Amino acid sequence: MNSRERILAAINHEPVDRVPTDIWATGEVHQKLNDHFGPDADIREALKVDGLAYVGAEYIGPPLPEVPDDEIVDYWGMRSRALTYEGGVYYEQSFSPLAAAKTIDDLEQYAWPSADWFDYSKMHAAAEAVHDKQAVHCGYMAIFYFHNLLRGLELSLLDPHDDPEFTRHLLSRLSDSFYEHHRRMFEAGDGLIDIAQVTDDFGSQTGPLISIQTFREFYRPHMQRFIDLCRSFNIKVFHHDDGAIRPFLPDLIEMGIDILNPIQSKCPGMEVEPLKADFGDSLCFHGAIDNQEVLPFGTPEDVRAAVRTAIDALASDGTGYILAPCHNIQAVTPVENIIAMYDEGHNYGKF
């Protein structure tokens, strides 16, 4: 099997020759791997990573506003500031463009991103170039997370309770922006797109950030709209959701997600064996190699043991699992641990 066949077979719960693999990592980690394997090395090939090929539309919209040298800004007007930490840099949000909004009129004054701000003309050729070798991934729709980013986390958590009408209007405008942009991308892909993200971040380290009632009333209808859009183009739905989100899984499965990431097994309710037993018939699992303790601070043998545990549990039926770190590999992670993860996955994960 090649990488595309292996990834899609796992998602479809069909037999695979070995557990497919994917990689998420910070820029500093990619640099460390280049330093290790050589500047001309293909990291994916060196680690025998199957991975996904990403395609998207090119931004051609209004000029982005000028920001200080230590900040970046996107077409939503969200600004982030560079903060250093051990071994690297993270950009933490410094400005939420709708934090001062108080009325629906305020929301209407905001420049909601338009699908007309993008050039979709090159997408088909880009997808066609990789389609035979890798599964093609396109898009990112995250209604709750972007509510957080547009308003700031505290305000976004209060909004549904303090002003439901304001919240519904904000989410409706946000949903419309996501929907039309992705509809045009999927049309441009013309049947070559395999996977899209209808994703979010409902979980914390110990449990969900919002109640299931709030989810169902405010966010689920928009997520269902996105999932239905993917389904209309025969695209599989990848759902990223950090933390302890087990209470949400029955709803998410009913809505039609296909792939669940990142499987933070350190969080309550996210233990791998019960997840496979309870939801393995419905979901393909993606991730599960601990990125909080084992990968950055364990030994190579600790990493190998974690890989075996994940494969034994999440691929117990010989399919339905894509091995990957549970979120970006961090800069403090030793290269030998990264190599150990993919080497063990490649060898132990054979069927």
Task: From the structure above, extract its key features.
TIM Barrel, single chain, three-stranded antiparallel beta sheet, 351 residues, alpha/beta, 14 helices
Lay out the secondary structure:
Layout: H1 3-11, H2 27-37, H3 43-46, E1 52-54, E2 58-59, E3 71-73, E4 79-85, E5 88-95, H4 104-109, E6 118-119, H5 123-130, E7 135-141, H6 143-151, H7 153-162, H8 164-189, E8 195-198, H9 212-232, E9 236-240, H10 249-255, E10 259-261, H11 272-279, E11 284-289, H12 294-297, H13 300-314, E12 321-325, H14 335-348
Parallel strand pairs: 1-7, 7-8, 8-9, 9-10, 10-11, 11-12
Antiparallel strand pairs: 2-6, 3-4, 4-5
Helix pairs in contact: 6-7, 7-8, 8-9, 13-14
Structure description:
The chain is an alpha/beta fold and 351 residues long. It has one domain (3-63, 98-348): TIM Barrel (Alpha-Beta Barrel). The protein contains 14 helices and 12 strands. It has helices spanning 3-11, 27-37, 43-46, 104-109, 123-130, 143-151, 153-162, 164-189, 212-232, 249-255, 272-279, 294-297, 300-314, 335-348, and strands at residues 52-54, 58-59, 71-73, 79-85, 88-95, 118-119, 135-141, 195-198, 236-240, 259-261, 284-289, 321-325. The strands form 3 sheets. A 7-stranded parallel sheet has the order 1-7-8-9-10-11-12. Strands 3-4-5 form a 3-stranded antiparallel sheet, with no helix packed on it. Strands 2-6 form a two-stranded antiparallel sheet. Strand 4 and strand 5 form a beta hairpin. Helix 7 crosses helix 8 (164-189), helix 8 runs parallel beside helix 9 (212-232) and helix 13 runs parallel beside helix 14 (335-348). The radius of gyration is 20 Å and the shape is globular. The two termini are 12 Å apart. The model has no long low-confidence stretch (mean pLDDT 97).
